[in-house]
């Protein structure tokens, strides 16, 4: 296997087509990951990423994004950024810096404006209507209530690996809330010598286990991509249930340096995979009798 891409959720399949086109032509893993994520950011039918993302409690669509280069371990991230088209592109531009790699709020917006990133009001009419309908209802926030982080892991023909993520965060979240997605090590991690991982679910839970780094750590210590993903999720799930009596939704994708992939989850979770030896395929991972079962959709 010379190239591969894996993406979270059914919406990831849209971007995975673009990633595959880039990788099949000998393109870079970094371009494939960012272009795949960016394509999802532009689609208003997906209500958890970019344009059409669901608002926070004040009616604002604020976005988070992260990027990591597995060759250099450089990463870039933005959080709580409003009024710009593509947080993942902004995050990528921050990765080569020696410092100031993670910017949030007004600082991220000032940087994006100064560097000419495209502006956009990401509150679509449909998202506005959803917000107006729901804003006066008191309810428990749910990780998958109109919220799914899009995550991409890519491997190119040269062996380079990248991770890229983007999200609008929890629907009706408190202003300023940031989950795991832009946090290197929790929401994503990539090391071309080992593999890459990215997470989706309730960020507050995922952060407690530094889930993405943990999976890559396990791959570096002899576990396959599948074993590492399931071990990381299962261990954190068990620990949280033992200490708190419950564990919220969390799912993890992994990609090893040889192009093999893995998934760990404690809920039903669709994802997409494509490589030079496998056409783009949608899968569903589910937890059944304590084991992760994966079926083709």
- The count of β-strands is 13
Radius of gyration: 17 Å
Classification by helices and strands: alpha+beta
Counted up, domains total 1
Sheet with the most strands: spatial strand order: 4-3-2-6-5-1-11-12-13
Helical element count?
A: 8
Average pLDDT reading: 95
CATH topology: Glutamine Phosphoribosylpyrophosphate, subunit 1, domain 1
Unreliable segments (pLDDT under 50, ≥5 consecutive)?
none
Share of residues in helices: 25-40%
CATH class: Alpha Beta
CATH 4th-level superfamily: (Glycosyl)asparaginase
How far apart the termini lie comes to: 23 Å
Compressed to H and E, one letter per element, the order equals EHHEEHEHHEEEEHHHEEEEE
Shape: globular
CATH architecture: 4-Layer Sandwich
Give the amount of beta strand, in percent: 25-35%
The main β sheet shows up as: 9 strands, mixed
């Amino acid at each position: 296997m010379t190239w591969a891409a894996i993406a979270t959720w059914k919406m990831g399949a849209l971007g995975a087509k673009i990633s595959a086109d880039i990788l099949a032509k000998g393109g870079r893993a970094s371009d494939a990951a960012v272009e795949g994520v960016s394509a999802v950011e532009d689609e208003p039918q997906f209500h958890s990423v970019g344009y059409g993302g669901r608002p926070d409690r004040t009616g604002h669509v604020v976005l988070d994004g992260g990027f990591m280069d597995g060759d250099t371990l450089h990463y870039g991230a933005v959080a709580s950024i409003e009024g710009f088209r593509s947080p993942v592109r902004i995050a990528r531009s921050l990765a080569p810096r020696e410092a100031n790699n993670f910017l949030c709020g007004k600082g991220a917006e000032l940087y994006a404006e100064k560097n000419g990133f495209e502006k956009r009001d990401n509150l679509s009419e449909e998202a506005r209507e959803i917000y107006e309908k729901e804003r006066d209802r008191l309810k428990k926030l749910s990780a998958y209530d109109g919220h799914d982080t899009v995550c991409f892991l890519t491997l190119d023909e040269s062996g380079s690996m990248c991770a890229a993520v983007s999200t609008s965060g929890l629907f009706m979240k408190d202003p300023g809330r940031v989950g795991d997605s832009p946090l290197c090590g929790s929401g994503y991690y990539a090391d071309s010598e080992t593999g890459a991982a990215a997470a989706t679910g309730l960020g507050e839970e995922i952060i407690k286990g530094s889930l993405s780094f943990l999976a890559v750590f396990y791959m570096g210590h002899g576990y396959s991509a599948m074993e590492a993903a399931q071990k990381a999720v299962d261990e954190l799930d068990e620990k949280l249930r033992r200490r708190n009596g419950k564990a919220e939704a969390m799912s993890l994708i992994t990609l090893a340096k040889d192009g093999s992939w893995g998934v760990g989850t404690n809920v039903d979770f669709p994802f997409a995979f494509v490589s030079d030896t496998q056409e783009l395929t949608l899968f569903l991972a589910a937890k059944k009798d304590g084991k992760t079962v994966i079926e083709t959709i």
